[in-house]
Amino acid sequence: MTESESRTDSPTDPLAYDVVVVGAGPVGENVADRTRAAGLTTAVVESELVGGECSYWACVPSKALLRPVITRADARGVPGVRQAVQGPLDAPAVLAHRDEYASHWKDDGQVRWIEGTGADLYRGRGRLAGPRTVEVTGPDGERRVLTARHAVALCTGSRAALPGLPGLADVQPWTSREATSAGAVPGRLIVVGGGVVAVEMATAWQALGAQVTLLVRGEGLLPRMEPFAGELVAEALTEAGADLRTGTSVTSVRRENGTVVVVTDTGDRFEADEILFATGRAPRTDDVGLETVGLEPGSWLQVDDSLRVDGHDWLYAVGDVNHRALLTHQGKYQARIAGAAIATRATGQPLTAGAWSPHTAGADHGAVPQVVFSDPEAAAVGLSLAEAERAGHRVRAVDVDFSAVAGASLYSDGYKGRARMVVDLEDEILRGVTFVGPGVGELVHSATVAVVGQVPLSRLWHAVPSYPTISEVWLRLLEAYRDS
Questions:
Q1: Calpha distance 85→28 (Å, rounded)
Q2: Which of 250, 280, 310 represents a domain boundary (last residue)?
Q3: Is 5's pLDDT higher than 60?
Q4: HSE of 107 in the Cβ direction (CA atoms, 13 Å)?
Q5: pTM, rounded to two decimals
Q6: SS3 helix, strand, coil % of the chain, rounded to 5?
């Protein structure tokens, strides 16, 4: 049912539910699904498209753009196929494919999914109006008040954070939204940033025909991963034709006759048709009524491991808004935990204790997986070597080049890649694993199981990788640890 069409309550009367979820992206959808499955009445409030950032401006459209790019790169590494894929990508076909996967920015299917759970969907802007109360202002200006008997879950996500450069708004820069939904390939594109969004969008648009310039304030790409990940990705982007400048900050940006003009702190001047700022994220909490319950508007929300906001026994913050891991899959994981915790508390039962209980987001602490869909791919889970050392673990890094893996050389000629496992020397378990190379995104879940399960290396010896696959890298890593 949409906007509670079957209800007869006066619009001025509060509408009571067990749970009110603000935000209908993947995280909010999963909270609602879990609370409805537990028998709790649930309302979901959404001000934009049901399905959220991931479905329309992030994960789905970006990977639809990148899939043809990666497929062509893989094919070019295989004799007999290489000659058949030497031409340029069909950019209009790629963009049309992207549009299909973004459902042409219509949310009918996602609405039907919400309705199928039995939750009530309210379209409009939802704001807290005191404890356990959400006021919804609909597109027509009508206001409804929803009350929650047990919980309100804020699942409003994050937005692109733009720097405070004078006149930036007049330039009309791209953020991740424009970069994933643009209807045409720009001739020249400046990308500011060196993180995941910057790398993936530089990869996609360079391959689709844009001349890409990457301006990176830091000393390398992908700074939250092992250093070699950014180095290998930077090498590949440069070989593909991108102009990569590190240690560079933008000091001014303007448009002159439609052309973007950028000046950096090194005195260099760059021109382009469009500019993408991929310089961080900010929480979508500036207009959700946090001040009505004693919280700071625009802030990241601190939560416990059941995703309940500190000091508020009825308020949950799930997904990006709690700043634990700005990843869709991790937000959905949190949503499952939060939904279980809300349902258990609603029955008056205590939560199950323990780092890996159904009510504890234990994976948020040192076991978060991520794939960067660049060429080559970069995939990691857990702690990097530097992070493990800062956390006080006694660890050793074990590195293997994929040239030692038969399956990698069969995957493509001249396969370039590297793997690292960070071994805890006290317990001989893995604190983190990183892979860089074509196709390695499909390896990261095996590493996630090893890290989350705290599988002893002595047991991993008996997990035999199939020959000849890229996953044989696991055997090479174990051999390198044994022999070093």
A1: 42
A2: 280
A3: no
A4: 23
A5: 0.94
A6: 35, 25, 40
Q: Which residue range is the domain that position 34 belongs to? A: 15-51+107-159+283-363
The domain tally of the chain equals 3
For 316, residues 6+ apart whose C-beta sits below 8 A from its C-beta are: 31, 151, 152, 153, 154, 303, 306, 307, 308, 309, 338, 341, 342
| Burial of 263 (C-beta count, 10 Å sphere; 0-12/13-18/19+) | middle
pLDDT at 11 over 70: no
Q: Are 233 and 220 in contact (CB under 8 A)?
A: no
Per residue in 51-94, pLDDT tens? Answer: 999 999 999 999 999 999 999 999 999 999 999 998 899 999 99
Tokens 């992206």: give the residue: 25
Cis, peptide link before residue 173, omega less than 30° from 0: no
- Residue 136 sits in the same domain as residue 230: no
In a domain, 89, yes or no: no
- Tens digits of residue pLDDT in 362-410: 999 999 999 999 999 999 999 999 999 999 999 999 999 999 999 999 9
Residue 428: is it exposed, middle or buried by C-beta count within 10 angstroms (0-12/13-18/19+)? middle
Co-location of 328 and 305 in the same domain: yes
